[in-house]
Specification:
The chain is an alpha/beta fold and 171 residues long. The protein has 5 helices and 7 strands, in the order βαβααβαββαββ. The protein has helices at residues 19-30, 42-46, 56-64, 81-87, 123-142; strands at 7-12, 34-40, 71-75, 91-95, 111-115, 161-164, 167-170. α1 (19-30) links the parallel β1 (7-12) and β2. The N and C termini lie far apart (75 Å). The mean pLDDT is 84.
Length: 171
């Protein structure tokens, strides 16, 4: 507590910011008077999973633009023991995909809430859908042209090739 106000801390990568991120941050806001949001740096994220799609500076700017947080800070470690003293938070909120990971904070007098994302959107699912869509579009695009023709280059007679009526013709 700070001046009798309940301080809540939540954190995450917030890559490809989506509705479930907003729900968790809004929920965290409802649990106290001051909400601090930690945004994982790219270096931290890459220490336990693949590099975020959205760079850190853009992710932190997006979270700062939300109406719910009072303070937004970089998060450089998944160990929050030191943050309890520095930030004086009373409640920690994190997604339920981290269930059990932060129970050690309870020994420091912090209430730990594992927010149930439930069904819906996740950054991993979004990345997968984007990759699948890209692969499908690439396959479709690649099938339009023979592999041995470079559109925009000249043919053996020095004539530029272009598409005409769905076929390659000399320009």
């Amino acid at each position: 507590m700070i001046a009798g106000k309940t301080v809540v801390y939540t954190s995450g990568t917030f890559d490809m910011l989506h509705a479930n991120h907003i729900k968790m941050i809004e929920y965290a806001r409802s649990l106290g008077d001051i909400l601090i949001v930690g945004v994982n740096t790219d270096e931290l994220v890459m220490s336990y999973k693949s590099q975020p799609i959205i760079p850190f500076e853009e992710r932190i700017a997006l979270v700062k633009a939300l109406k719910f947080p009072d303070i937004v800070i970089p998060q450089t470690s998944l160990d929050h023991g030191d943050k309890v003293k520095k930030l004086n938070f009373d409640v920690f909120v994190v997604g339920d995909d981290w269930a059990g990971k932060y129970d050690y904070l309870k020994e420091k007098g912090v209430s730990v809430v594992y927010f149930p994302y439930g069904r819906g959107v996740s950054s991993s699912e979004l990345k997968s859908r984007i990759y699948e869509r890209y692969s499908s579009l690439k396959k479709t695009a690649d099938s339009h042209f023979p592999n041995d023709v470079d559109v925009g280059k000249a043919n053996d007679d020095g004539e530029k090739l272009r598409l005409g009526g769905g076929k390659l013709i000399a320009a």
